[in-house]
Amino acid sequence: MKLELRQESGGPRLYLGDDGLHAGVGLELELGADVWIAGRYEYSISDTGKLRPLLFVGYACGHPSRECGCELAIGLPENASVRRPPPSWSRERRSGVVLDELDTPASLQRKAAAAVKP
Predict the structure, then answer these.
(1) Looking at the whole model, is its pTM more than 0.70?
(2) Integer Cα distance of 17 and 79 in angstroms
């Protein structure tokens, strides 16, 4: 599903269908045909009122604990294909799929599928 920018009384807001997105909600971004990566939606609004949507995604940073919370910020263009993850992911701090250096499109697909299972 594609994102849609709408103007509200408080400023711009992105919608996914009829669902207005709020900062902190879980989203999945489609990287390729049926390859999804889970993350946390955040945004900022520029001085000129332009919305800048971001998806924060956890990654393998090399810290020994792997629970340090290191994240990548991915700018979301309006034409990005996104979807809402299952309800158990909503409003969680954790970002989703952790990428390893040796990941391939097939392993990313397996990780994304496993991450959305309850």
Answers:
(1) no
(2) 13
